[in-house]
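Q: What residues go here?
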């Protein structure tokens, strides 16, 4: 991807994480080779994670609590694989959306007020990326801390790994233990990167779209503010109509860009939403109900906290698009169109304003597979579903113990 025209920390970071998980459109043979290498080590980490958890489930089927932990890990990995495959199949569309934003939005051809709005969007993107890079290691830290806690007081021949390997190898001895521990930790963090990769670029795009809608609203509010005393009403109307046409073009660009994002991410969002409430329900069950040791409970606490933060930021940035796109209706209506003379340009201007308002009543949004728009309401709905799953599992356990 060519980023010579404009880039910042958030865009560079999103490109980096997308590039080194194998989801980008290579420009030459060297980049294609690098993409295949990136996909290879991500695939090794994902397949190793599935293998370890499935084999462990087979050997510990009678331990319901431990199996629940393994099932949760397996679901997370399967969800990551599906999202990665979807995004990989849409690499060309993702690159097209990137270059579209680069051509029309990521430039310096703004006045001072518009540049300020743009810089606020960039600041939000930078904070989001920094926060995402900080939260992800904290979320995965439980997988590293838990075996370290359990190894306290044990001799070297009885040490445990983050994930148990059912093989007849001396993995508790030095240096095999250290090598295997390092390999499993690397796999965990590679899976974590693949888990958040699809949403990093999406959230950056969402925040920039939010800023562009605010720039559009600023233009709609301010093209009326011309010194009307220096021109008669007809010349002033022609000026406003020409400025409105540019705003309409900008609005059309934003709508088209949102359609491109929808085409790239809609199925990935659907997969994420379909699994997430179940995963958080399993987390809550293991934290509040199951007879889990404190070190294992730490993993679930970290996981559910990271999932909640991930879901909130993702739905919040999508909500920004819906909110700012509908604000266009109120913004354009508050202009001085009612004072303009009713000749050809004046009537055309009023007609265009009416069409803008009608179109803005339907907010630009991202959907989960076309089933429902993603917003803060989605966040609360998923929390409600999580509580329902948790209640169902708790009642099932109580009924089983009563029998």
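A:
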């Amino acid at each position: 991807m060519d980023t010579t025209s404009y880039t910042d920390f958030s865009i560079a970071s999103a490109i980096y994480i997308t590039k080194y998980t194998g989801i980008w459109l290579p420009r030459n043979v060297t980049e294609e080779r690098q993409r295949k290498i990136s996909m290879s080590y991500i695939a090794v980490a994902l397949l190793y994670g599935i293998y370890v958890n499935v084999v462990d489930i087979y050997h510990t089927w009678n331990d319901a609590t431990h199996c629940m932990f393994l099932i949760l890990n397996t679901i997370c990995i399967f969800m990551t694989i599906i999202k990665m495959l979807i995004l990989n199949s849409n690499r060309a569309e993702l690159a097209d959306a990137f270059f579209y934003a680069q051509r029309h939005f990521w430039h310096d051809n703004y006045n001072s007020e518009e540049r300020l709005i743009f810089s606020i969007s960039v600041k939000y993107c930078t904070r989001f990326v920094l926060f995402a890079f900080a939260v992800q290691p904290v979320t995965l830290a439980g997988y590293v801390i838990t075996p370290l806690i359990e190894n306290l007081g044990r001799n070297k021949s009885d040490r445990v790994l983050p994930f148990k390997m059912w093989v007849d190898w001396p993995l508790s001895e030095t240096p095999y233990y250290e090598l295997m521990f390092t390999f499993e930790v690397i796999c965990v963090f590679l899976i974590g990167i693949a888990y958040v990769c699809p949403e990093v670029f999406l959230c950056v795009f969402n925040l920039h779209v939010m800023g562009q809608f605010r720039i559009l609203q600023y233009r709609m509010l301010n093209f009326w503010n011309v010194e009307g005393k220096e021109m008669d009403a007809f010349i002033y109307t022609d000026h406003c109509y020409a400025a409105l046409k540019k705003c309409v073009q900008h609005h059309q660009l934003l709508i088209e860009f949102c359609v491109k994002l929808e085409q790239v991410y809609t199925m990935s969002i659907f997969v994420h939403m379909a699994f997430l409430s179940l995963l958080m329900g399993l987390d809550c069950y293991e934290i509040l109900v199951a007879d889990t040791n404190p070190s294992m409970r730490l993993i679930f606490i970290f996981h559910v906290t990271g999932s909640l933060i991930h879901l909130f930021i993702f739905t919040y940035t999508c909500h920004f698009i819906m909110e700012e796109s509908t604000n266009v209706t109120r913004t354009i209506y508050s202009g001085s169109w009612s004072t303009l003379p009713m000749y050809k340009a004046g009537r055309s201007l009023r007609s265009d304003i009416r069409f803008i308002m009608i179109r803005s009543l339907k907010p630009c949004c991202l959907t989960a597979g076309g089933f429902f728009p993603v917003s803060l309401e989605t966040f609360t709905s998923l929390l409600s579903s999580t509580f329902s799953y948790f209640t169902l599992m708790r009642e099932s356990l109580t009924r089983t113990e009563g029998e």
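A: Context that may help when evaluating the design: The radius of gyration is 26 Å. Residues 46 and 81 are 7 Å apart (CA to CA).
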